[in-house]
Each structure stands twice: as C-alpha cells, then as structure tokens.
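ok here's 4-methylaminobutanoate oxidase (Formaldehyde-forming):
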Amino acid sequence: MNSKVPSHAQVVIVGGGSIGCNIAYHLAELGVSDVVVLERDKLTAGTTWHAAGEIVPGVLGAEWECELYLHGRNLIAGLEEESGQATGWRQVGYIQPADTPERVEEMRRGAAFMNLHGIEVHEISPAEAAERFPIGDFSNTIAAFWYPNEGRTNPVDTTMALARGARNRGAKVIENVAVQEILTRDGRAMGVRTEQGEIHAEHVVVAAGMWSRQIGAGAGINLPLQAAEHYYLITDDIAGIDRNLPLLEDPHNWSYYREEVGGLLIGLFEPDAAPWMIDTIPDNFAFGEIEPDWERMAPHLEAAFARVPTIAEAGIRKFFCGPESFTPDLAPLVGEAPNLRNCWVAAGLNSLGILYGPGIGKTLAHWIVDGRCPVDHTAFNVNRFADGTHNTPAFRRARTPELLAKSFGPHFPNDSFKTARGLKRSVLHDRLKAAGACFSESHGWELADWFAPEPGQARVESFSWGRQNWFDWHAAEHRAAREDVIVMDMSSMAKFLLQGRDACAMLNRVSCNQVDVEPGRVVYTAWANEAGGFEADLTVTRLADDRYIVVVGENSHGHTETWMRRHIAADEFVTITDITPGTTQINVHGPKARELMSRVSAADLSHDGFPFMSARTIDVGFFEVLALRVTYVGELGWELHVPALHAVQVYDLLMETGRDLGVRNAGMQTLSSLRLEKAYRDFGVDVDNTDNPSEAGLGFAVRLDKPSGFIGRDALAAIKEAGTPKRRMLQFLLSDPEPLMHGNEIIRLDGRPVGYIQVGAYGHTLGGATGIGFAELDQALTAEMVNSGAWSIEIAGRSYAAAASLKPMLDPKMERVKR
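and the structure:
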C-alpha cells in the first residue's frame, strides 16, 4: 500500500472498507485513475472485517435494488479470476421459509418481481427445503423459496481484491492516514486535510461507514446514521454439515444461518436492537468487538435454535457482537451532498455493505463521471433528508431499536415505522385524531391514512396483503370525494416561495413547461435532467412578476430545494424560502366543493370567475388564504394555503358549514385510490430520474418550442422525434373485483411479461383494483396494441385479466374537474 499522501488527486475517497474500495475500483474502471483511498487504520478495519459475507437478495421490492444486487453478485463471482486475489466466493444457494399465509403471499409477490429482473427464485415445498438444508426444522413451513445462484464470500478477501483491481488501474490506496477535515470554499469541496498534509481534489467521497456522520458534520453535511449492535454466534463442529450447505434466512425468528468451518454461524436481526455510541464513534475503534449482552440476546438465540434444533446441543465457539450502521428509513445515503458541491456520500448500507457495495460503487462512479445517476435515486439520494430532524441523538436512540427487525421481518403495503414518531405534525393533527384518523408516517410527517367512525377504532387490527379492517371506511371516504365533498390535510406538501428579479428566468430554465405566464396562473410541469429524465413533477404558481410558489410532494422536499438552488446562475438574484412549516394546506374536493366554498367565501368561485389552474387570494370566514384551483384527485376543488395561525379556525369552519353536504375527512389511502383512478403520476413513486415525460404520458407538460429552452430540451426533442415509444406508462383495471394491487405485480401481454405495476390501489368508482405501470416491447407500443391486446396482471402466482389504457379510465375529458 502507498504510504505517502499526494498533494493532489482527481478524487479522494475517505474510507477503506467495502464501499470505498468499490468506488475506487469502479472509478478506475471508467478511466479515472487519479484516485486516492484514505483509510485511517487498515483496510476493512471498520465493519467490513466482521461482515457475514452473504450475497443474498432477500425480498427486493425496487428495480434499483435488483440492478445493484445483480451487478454485485456477478462482479464478486468473477472477481477472483480477474484480480488474481482469492475472494472466498462460493455459490451455495439460498433458502427462505414462509411459515404464515401472509409471508407466503409476500414471497410469491417478491419472487415474481425478482424473476422479472433476472434474479432466479423458485417456490419449493418444505420437504424440498429440508433436503437442501437437512439440519433445519420446516415442520411449520407452508412453502419455501429457493435462490440457486446466490452464495457467500469472504468480505476481507473480496475488499482486498477490489483494492488490487483499483491499484492495477492506477488508484492509490493509503492506510494509516486519518482525514481530519474536508476542505471547502464557496460551497464546494476542495480536498481534505490529513495528519500528513492536505490533498487538493476535484471530488471528495465520504465512504467512512459509521464514522461518516461525524466526518460529514464537520463540513455541515447532514448524514442521519447510527451504529447498532449486531450479533452472531458460531458453534463448534456439527456432524453432517457440509461446507456447501445453502444459506438460510428465517424472518420468522429474526435469524440467518450458514456453515462456518464445520459448525454453524447464526446471525440475529432482533426486534429490540441496541444503538451503540449515540454521540461519537471512537476514532481508534479498529477491528473492534463489543461486549455481548447475553441476557438481552438469550430469548432471540432460543428462537433461532427452534429453526435448527441441533444448535442447542452444539458447543459455542464464539458469540460475537460488532457495530453496523443504519439509516432512519433503511435506505442508503448516496449522492452529492445537498449543501456542498463535489462532496459525495456513500454510506448507510444498513448491514448490506458487501451485498450492495459493488452496485453502489458503480452507481456513484458513473454519477461523478457522467454528472447524473444511472439508476433510480429517489429512494436513496442523500438529499432526501432536508433538515436535521432525523439526526438528533434522541431520534437515533429511539428509532434504531426498530431498524434491524424492520429490515428483516415482514413487509406490508401500509405499514410504517412505529418509533420516533411525531417529528412533523400539521397544526390540524389533534383535530384529525379526534375525528378518528389513523396515522402513517412519511419523511417524518404524521399523515392521516384513513378515518374510523370513532377515534377508538383508529387502529390496524392486522396488517395484510388483503382487505384490512379499515377498507370499508376508506371506501366511504372515496365515495364522498366522487359524490359529495371531502377535506384533506395536505400540509406535508413541500412549499417554496421564490422571489427576486430572476425568479422567472431560473424557474423557466428548469421547467419543461412554460412558467413565464400571467400572475395568477398555476402551471403543472416536469423538471428534467440533461438526459431528459425526471427530476421532479410539480406545480409552479406565479403570484407576481417576481414571485412564485413551488409545491411538491413531501418525498421530494430536499431534492427539489437542492435542484433549485443549484440552478441559480452566478449573476442571478433569486431567494428561496421554505414556507412549509408556516403553511397549512387544506384541500377541498368533490362535486359539492363549490357549494361548500361559496358558503364560507364571498369570492367569485364560478368556473369563469375562478378557472381551473388559476390562483387567487380569497376570504374564508375571517381570514385571507391563497386558493389554487388544482386537483390531484380528479374532482372539482381547491387547494387552500392557510397561514398556520388560522388553520384550525378555517378547518372547523369548513367541517361545520359542510355538515349537511356530507363533508368528510379523507386520508392518504383515499388520495391514492382517487389519483390512480385518474392515472395521475407521482415522482419518486411512479416515475423517477430514469424515466422521461414522453414515456410517462406527460408530454403535455413539456413545451419544446419555448423560446428560452430548458434543461433536457434537446434530449426530449430527440425522444419525441424517434416516434412512438417502445416503453409507455399505462393504466390497468382488473376485471375481477376481488384481488388487490399494491405495486410490483407483473404486467403480461398475451401471456408474456412486459413490465410491472408501479403502484396500485382499489378503484372504488371503477369497480376494481387499478394501477399504473410501464409496459415495454421490442417494437413501438401503439394505441391500437394497448386497446386490443390481451392484458393480464400476475398477483402472487395467479393471473387476472385486465383492461389497459393510455388515457385515464375515469373522466378522460376532465369534465368532473372543470365543471
């Protein structure tokens, strides 16, 4: 290893574990040879050295996860031959048992999705599972799932092979050099200061594992990341164990198993995990262990022994505890730091650093070199944490105990985190709770998911992939929106006030649609990158010549703000104010929305007086509010932006005044079902940075003829010129009214898989489950093919006939919206 630090490098990587070495390897592979990896101790000294080294996908639910996983598995499988360095890779296969009907349902859904994306999974019987893993007890198993191509590797040897591959292409790997500071100037990273001197660099990458939080903090970067205790036990030799015994993961007992030198390694992802070193990770912690808590872990070990009873009779060779770092939402922290240009982050792999390391390394290397992310980044982009509320010691202490089990246990469509709740509450929270709201959580926000008739009934009796106890209550909310009038608290929507001489020019440059409009106009627009891929879909409202409001979903809060700030030119004057905390957004929608609003306001609310996609300041009772006539549910209505000071009064007035009109509160489940009946899109859920407006059916929000142009204009013009796309987003409706769609169900045309549902809900007005998803053919996907094709949707192994449409199946002419 090199020992002397250079004075300059193109890229400096802080951290010599799996992630840092993977990034160096992939940068060098792209031809970026002037790379320096700095490791404060020895390579792998942090958490890499004690990783289990299982290369298994579990149940992957996102395309990006499959893509990153496959790249990693395939690279590791061939790394020894390429590098000449032994890695310990063995393809032994992998088994997951499903002991409950709900787990069988989840696994069947997941298996179909993963098979579609190239990960081979087979459903097998409990007897077949026992044949492959003869020391296991599968007496309570309903079905098991076999992944034949998965295996295991030695984390230390694999990381050394990656380091060798990077060095062979010119990278420098330097051990025993600690980074003391990230050097910055004018909002950009300029290099690092080490104990051996400064290294000036064009790019700095923070890939320091559980130390990343404190390294980032020194440069003002918010990295919510917390180390937790992670346990595994290694037994003495057990008769009959073959070194090629398959890997086994048991989500029912929070445990995983693999052969270890004639014995068995049993790892635990227990539901009461312990955070480690809340304040600061010691700088000198290298190849370290934590004293095991036998008392706390004993019940979890007993549960793990139930799956493999012979463990109880085997001697214990080692009971190990070491730290692993986790993020608040169990997604990695990857991308360019939102407040520091040229400073990149690759951390928070949630105990999956060996598994995802190559994929993250490849992704970030391309991001740095090409200037854009090659995969969907909406789930893991580091800029999703807009502020430090997820990073206080109290939050990390409260959330961490839930994280290990949440990553390992069952997953349900409407489940959310139980710990560290209440970060962001609308001022209407108590009113909604008293009205029977059951709350879910999204990006720190408490959201009314659905409403029970009585507050005491506002709970999920049992999470399920089928109809849950709240299904009929939600259906009543949905019908109220279509037949009467609903009120929705949408305060979680991110709202930004843009002001200044150049606000129009800046917004028009980032917007695909024309936003240089008359004051009082609301414009729906896409934002695109240079390749034509989405960076946002949102509304831009012009209030005055030099004032705009931008409104976007809570999942895009940080990304949207970052994108705007990065596109203010050096000679432009624009101020951006996040007005989300001070604005309560109350949506009023339904056929009777105009009647209700007319009772509380003297404003002209007629279609001519207040046209669709316009904005006015109006009176509501004693107060003035900004009203936008827009919809995300496909009904007449308004979006009211109310100062938080007056929100409770406005809400009470609407609910009291609308009582005889049948006004109801409505939650996020109803928002989802309403918008999917209209096939409305949602960036970060249905579309992402790898999709483009043409394929997504949002070409109407793109003005290629704008005199000033916009970011991505040339790419989108070329896409349009190419003609009818081969890949298009369609709406689907199941013919059978019983099944439910949630997302990831397989789309089939003439029996052949052509895509998957991005998100689904029950269309109570349409009379069946509905969803939207991309279908892709090897030829242009024409309207005639959409309308005449034999479409079906595969749900957990069963196929259901479906109708497909390019246009919204509900109110395609917008008559309900514009009445």
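+1. The first strand starts at residue 8 and ends at 14.
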